[in-house]
Design a protein that fits this description.
7-stranded mixed beta sheet, 12 strands, about 40% helix
């Protein structure tokens, strides 16, 4: 049975390297488990012996410049070049070794680059060491990612930032469900020459494409938002200048930015906050003159309560509610249509309630 082709790392390869890779790939796919044997049989003894002599001289050569020339000759025999290997600085590690250890390191360079090890170099290929190196590099990438996430490097500005970004939020009515709302987002980019311009998520992606020039113009926190907005743009209308959010989409933005002052409330000197706190609707009876009304009070996490009229309810799931400048999760919320209608009405005479509702109250 032909063996499954191994997943190879992406490398920058020349036309010669493509020929080398194609040759070995054809043999692997054609001969399967017998590919290694076929590799040995496909080359003449003279070619292997010639390359073996080059390797022996390369392994014992004390001069780094001459070693480099010998390795160039060896690569040329394989129709390869130094640039066809991984972009790591592997040459420094090779020159520090001598003898068999140098050849073992060279074989490791072939394996790390995802290329077949030549026949004459195969005795020095340590696959156990290769597995260890792969695991070490995997761990390094993990911890490097954790480092950049927990302690992101701050870009060095040669001058003071010359551009800034504001994210403005406004509450807009959900036309599909009366009584419920959405939180609409506008992204403003402010530059000295062009002034305040509203930008789309696609514009955020354009800025990241020009990161070498644009990043130094923005403060670090602004650039963090630009990168984030560019990454999530495909979930929305990338050309829209007003981004309406509800349910899970709104929650995603709030989880990311709710503990910062990033999302400002339009017309208010405050920002949208989200601390993951939960509120509940509690049935209540309210007397006005001689009439008795049914309504709900909103129980807040601090033990206080407020009227339903003080709350802005958002569409979608999970149910979210806006009180003052903070967004809360709404526990055990009614269906969206019921919540919207009740948020519009807010109270009703007890005489209009159903018999079962009155009995349970």
């Amino acid at each position: 049975m032909p063996r499954a082709p191994k997943k190879k790392k992406t490398t920058i390869s020349s036309a010669k390297a493509s020929k080398y890779d194609a040759h070995h790939k054809v043999i692997d796919n054609t001969y399967g488990d017998f590919a290694d044997l076929r590799h040995q049989l496909s080359e003449s003894k003279e070619d292997v012996a010639e390359r073996s002599n080059l390797l022996k001289m390369f392994a014992d050569c004390p001069d780094s410049q001459r070693s480099w020339l010998l390795l160039e000759d060896y690569f040329d025999k394989l129709t390869l070049a130094r640039k066809d290997f991984s972009l790591d600085d592997w040459w420094g590690g090779v020159t520090q070794l001598h003898g068999d250890a140098r050849l073992e390191q060279l074989a490791l360079v072939f394996m790390k680059s995802g290329r077949s090890v030549p026949n004459e170099l195969m005795p020095y290929a340590d696959f156990s060491r290769f597995a260890e190196v792969e695991e070490e590099e995997k761990d390094f990438k993990l911890f490097k990612g954790l480092e950049e996430w927990m302690f992101p490097p701050s870009p060095v500005h040669l001058d003071a930032p010359r551009a800034s970004l504001k994210v403005i939020a406004r509450v807009v009515e959900d036309k599909d469900i009366p009584g419920l709302n959405r939180l609409a987002i506008e992204i403003h980019v402010i530059r000295p020459r062009t002034g305040d311009r509203i930008k789309s998520l696609e514009d955020m992606a354009d800025l990241t494409m020009r990161a070498a020039h644009e990043q130094e113009l923005f403060p670090a926190e602004d650039w963090k938002f630009i990168r984030w907005a560019s990454d999530i743009r495909h979930d929305y209308d990338v050309e829209a200048e007003l981004i309406p959010l509800e349910g899970a989409d709104l929650l995603k933005w709030l989880v990311q930015w709710g503990k910062t002052n990033r999302i400002e409330i339009e017309g208010a000197n405050d920002s949208v906050k989200f601390m993951g706190r939960i509120i509940e609707m509690e049935p209540s009876l309210h007397k006005e003159k001689t009439n008795l009304y049914f309504t709900h009070l909103i129980n807040l996490p601090d033990g206080k309560s407020c009227q339903i009229s003080d709350v802005i309810f958002f569409s979608g799931e999970p149910a979210l509610a806006f009180i003052d400048s903070e967004v809360f999760l709404l526990r055990n919320s009614p269906p969206s249509e019921v919540l919207g209608n009740w948020a519009s009405k807010q109270k009703a005479p007890v005489s209009k309630l159903t018999h079962r509702l009155l009995t349970n109250l």
